[in-house]
Amino acid sequence: MEIGPDAGHTLTARNGTRAFMDGAPSPTLGYEQDYLGPLLRFQRGRTANIDVVNRTDDPITAHWHGMHVPGHLDGGPQLAFAPGQTWSPELPVDHPAATLWYHSHVHGQTADQVYRGLAGMIIVDDPDVDAGLPDDYGFNDIPLIVQDRNFDRSGRMSYDLGMMGVMQGFRGSEILVNGAIRPKLTVPGGLVRLRVLNASNARIYDFSFADGRTFHQVGTDGGLLPAPMGRTTLQLAPAERAEIVVDFADRAPARLVSRDVGSGGMMGGGSMMGGGGMMNGGGNSDSTFEVMSFDVGDAAVTAPATLPKTLPSDIRDMGEPVRTRSFRLNLHGGGMMGSMFNTLIGRDGQAMGINGDSYDMNRIDQAMQLNETELWRIDADMQAHPFHVHGTSFQVISQGGRAVDPQQVGLKDVVLVDGPTEILVRFDKCATAETPFMYHCHILEHEDAGMMGQFTVS
Ligand code: C2O
Ligand code: CU
Ligand code: CU
Fold this sequence. Notes:
Immunoglobulin-like; 7% helix; binds CU-O-CU linkage; binds copper (II) ion; cell cycle; Cupredoxin
């Protein structure tokens, strides 16, 4: 990935081809590239001027996932624009240093367009803060965009959703990192920061190193944690990010692997792939698969040699909530069989919803007040759903019915809802009824099927 300039970017979305493996090249989509898009590097306190040009055959958007920008700049479904057109938002970068991303967000098309490649990473830098972390981009500060994809016998990337693919979201049998299948990366023999983005449509990862080594998580969706957190595993649901620092000082090669996490709940997906039969679920959840591997090269190790004890985090006291809202993510229909059949016949995007309503571009579901802290209670039917909110970062108070320490979870914009979950949320950017913000499940097949709502902030 190339680094774009601080201000003034062109993102031309276009058709491409990419040979991911031996055999036939795959038709793909990308921004500026055949597949995925360039790294966008923004500076806090500046304005990023972007020309998004649509040279594809369909309407697209560019949504700045995780950025705190007003609704008319957010790139949501209402901002879809036609082939041949250009959208030129001026984004005020009012966000702490963080790893964010961008992707197309056309209602009903998001899963397919992101699958084919319309996504990229954003790094926000804060020029006033030196966190003391590895920050030599491409050397000891490395983006990892993790996705799963299927390929047909000719080697072409394929997106075939069986019934389970709609129900549970798509699962691919090959793991791609930055568009390459299980790549090997040479890193320096010291501390290396990995910015991991789960840009998969539906797969949840539970990452670890094959040798069981401890690494430190330093950042999450919305920015840095208050202190590095030692861990041996890292779970990332779709659209979640984590910055981790791994010590390669022992110069031993390493393999990044993931446990095969099912989709949770009653369906207990296990290792079911998209299109798998309905009755052969419940795969072995102990199996692991390789994501990528690392070799340690001879390059001179650069600073820092050790991790700082504390980090400049933007977590603050959000105060007492002034109101509570509840959200239930539904697979619709009466009971499990009902929702299965609804899903089967509901390929028109009417099958799934939130609080009983499937997404409707012409209906505003909630109205939020600017700068008021709210408590949101989120719960879900049958399986785990990554719940995402546009326009802000939030703090997780409890997850799956258990209290969590916001200091350890950090600022988030996606939370995996697997049982009752509570977040504290506040908005400081406006969104009108013409260009509202979204909340939705980030399993892209669920989002496209209507598990999304929209809201104003005023
Ligand atoms: Cu990453 Cu509404 O999106
Ligand atoms: Cu978003
Ligand atoms: Cu979902």
